[in-house]
Amino acid sequence: MALLRGLGVLLLGSLLLAAQGLRASPAASEYQVKAVFLFNFSQFVEWPPTAFAGPKAPFVIGVLGRDPFGTTLDEAVRGETANGRPLVVRRFPHLEDVDNCQILFIDRSQGARLEEIAAGLGHRGTLTVTDFEGAARHGAMIGLINESSRIRLRIDVAAARAAGLVISSKLLRPAQIVDETAGGG
User: What are phi and psi of 139, to 5 degrees?
Assistant: First the structure.
């Protein structure tokens, strides 16, 4: 737990200061780093009030498909809040199971269905995140791409805006901005 909190502080600082990407420390696995990114997205993205089931509803980080995180994601958000809402992790085996979710990590096992997933979510204020190359061309808003042991962000700002989300410039600075309408990604 202390390792994840320390890693979170280290990653947050690196995220804000390093425009060249983030290198995972030898003690942190790729999915520990990605779990901390998902937590940090809850701090650097604004959701419309309609994205929540109610004023006291929790902030939900969901995982669609196979769960590559194990308990790492749960540990990263344990006891944390986003805009005064408790953070919780939910796993969704199928798109039909996704209900009220603010961040949805879409596992590679669902890659062939990414366009269908994006269409199924519509514009309900869900930040879609995945970690496979070319995902922005198929509807993902944020790609966590592993390049030479660095996690790089690829963000489709237009897709996020269409879902009613506002991404902080602090998150955009170290990212590669892609435009799915222009075939980026």
Answer: 115, -5
